[in-house]
Design a protein that fits this description.
Rossmann fold; 19% strand; elongated
Length: 250
């Protein structure tokens, strides 16, 4: 393989798969993960230099200059727009080759409510009745507290990480409404959980098929649960995971 020292951003599924793939190719791999979940997933993987802190553009510039990577692969989450902007800018300034790994969007379907931001979702939910299963993670939990009776109406599926749980409790979410589980979740698991909490609405991000979107939507529709989707912030350009593998080999 042409490249012998590669920096990967993202504790995502794509980031982990790329790191493990490149290690098998005898490439020196540096992986930046910004969440406790990402750290836990990769901590015991041999051969990876793990960076366990959030990097702003200045820190990224310093790292790129110091380590002299052959290439940077940005496999961050589709909603981590600021991180992508910072690393792309840093690569341009230093002159390091940058490649963005994109996750294909879930094809839009009839019967799904699409919103561009959380505020719009909160407003929509304030106009309707019924309990809600949130599957958008812990990042936006503060915004959902603006919904009347959120403590009773909202059930939150999130990673079983102490920091996220502490944030949820400090915001007033009930312990009995926190469902702390690590995915991926099958169609049957999604269906069982929606039925268990008696959800009338499911709130999700467009995580694509690799993020389990298809199984969530199928389960919700099977039970007559309305699906609310937070759309992606921008339409990105880049290569899909299988295309990155091909590009690396070539």
């Amino acid at each position: 393989m042409k490249y012998k020292k590669i920096f990967i951003l993202g504790g995502t599924t794509e980031g982990r798969m790329l790191a493990e793939y490149l290690i098998r190719k005898d490439v020196e791999v540096w992986l930046s993960v910004a969440t406790d979940y990402g750290k836990e997933q990769m901590h015991h993987t041999e051969g990876i230099y793990l960076i366990e802190e959030r990097l702003d553009e200045r820190a990224m510039l310093q790292l790129l200059k110091e380590k002299q990577f052959d290439c940077v692969l940005d496999a961050t989450h589709p909603y981590a727009q600021l991180v992508t902007q910072n690393i792309k800018s840093a690569c341009e300034k230093v002159g390091v080759l940058y490649k963005r790994i994109i996750r294909e969007s879930y094809d839009k379907e009839e019967g799904i409510y699409y919103f561009d931001n959380v505020a719009e979702i909160v407003h929509f939910l304030s106009q309707v009745e019924g309990d809600v299963l949130l599957t958008t993670g812990s990042k936006d939990l503060a915004s959902f507290t603006l919904l009347n009776h959120y403590e009773q109406r909202l059930y939150v599926r999130m990673l079983p990480m102490p920091k996220g749980i502490e944030i949820a409790i400090s915001l007033g979410y009930q312990m009995s409404h926190l469902i702390c589980m690590q995915g991926p979740f099958s169609y049957e698991m999604n269906k069982a959980l929606l039925r268990h909490v008696k959800a009338k609405y499911l709130v999700t991000k467009d995580s694509g098929d690799i993020g389990g979107m298809q199984d969530k939507v199928r389960a919700a529709k099977a039970l007559g649960v309305e699906v609310i989707c937070l759309t992606r912030p921008v339409k990105e350009e880049g290569l899909r995971l299988e295309q990155i593998y091909q590009w690396l080999e070539e």
